[in-house]
Amino acid sequence: MSVLVKLAWLLVTVVVTAMVLLVGALIAFWAPDQPLRQLAERWAPAPSQFIDLQGMQVHVRDEGPRADSSSAIPIILLHGTGASLHTWDGWSAALTQQRRVIRVDLPGFGLTGPEPNRDYSMARYAEFVMAVADHYQLSQFHLGGNSLGGRIAWYTAALNPERVQRLVLVDASGGYPLQAESVPLAFKIASNPLFSGLMNYMLPRAVIRSSVENVYGDPSLVTEELVDLYYAMSVRSGNRQALRDRFAQDPLNNPQAVAHEQTLIQGLQQPTLILWGALDRLIPVSHAHQYAADLQHHQLHIFAELGHIPHEEDPAATVAPVLTFLAEETAAHE
Q1: Among 287, 275, 271, which residue's Cα sits nearest to residue 313?
Q2: What is the fold, at CATH topology level, of the domain defined by 36-333?
Q3: Whole-prediction pTM value?
Q4: Which segment of 64-68, 171-175, 245-249 scores lowest on mean pLDDT?
Q5: Any idea where the domains of the chain sit in the sequence?
């Protein structure tokens, strides 16, 4: 057999093998979008509600005493990329003993699903937060957020200082050049133009587990039920494409955008509580100190054993300074 024939057979073998492997992967990891109705029964029991807002059915939970029964100003909590309002379960249980707590699935995530115009800019998210506040007729409110949610919180506060009274920033993104020590696998795939398209149809559960473990200080705390939650939120119809769109639109390390955001942070007048996990490898703890240097009225708490989502990893430890911080506002109004 000639060398050319052998090479041809080798090439055919390689191509066929690659095709077999690809088909096998598609079969093994096939994960089509799941409609809202299919997910809501498990992940949106009472007190979940869906409100018609800006062309979306927005998943919210509105809990705790109302204004007529408490002098405490309500707080709106915003989750991070890939998460949902469930990330605040532990905090909500504690905070609702004292005040009204409104949690929301941001556009592009959770059970809310994609933004109709595929606009995931900070300005659009700020408009969305204010639309939520207007829906509930909140003349004043506090904002808390983690990661992307933290970025949206301070951005919204900068544009609406007369309504946003206090800020709670939990490993917040934005404002400074990001030099991540480690990025979750799902984020890497969604940001890669070669592989992100496959993510719309294939999603190994191992990718979700790896990504959640990546942002925990103690990966052993990641349970099967937690992976179920993150997986379900990922395959909600349209969310994977929304994640790709958001990463494509995000000017996080554009020098002009970063400088503009830092200017907004430096102009904030609201009392701000900064919480950070020292083991955060996505947004390192050095960012906490940058926020502290730029914010005029702040308190800083760093948790030595926690990661990027410390409020979810250890709700009891992380909500304690929040209760104290918000109590200062309540005392001032008495």
Answers
A1: 275
A2: Rossmann fold (3.40.50)
A3: 0.90
A4: 64-68
A5: 36-333
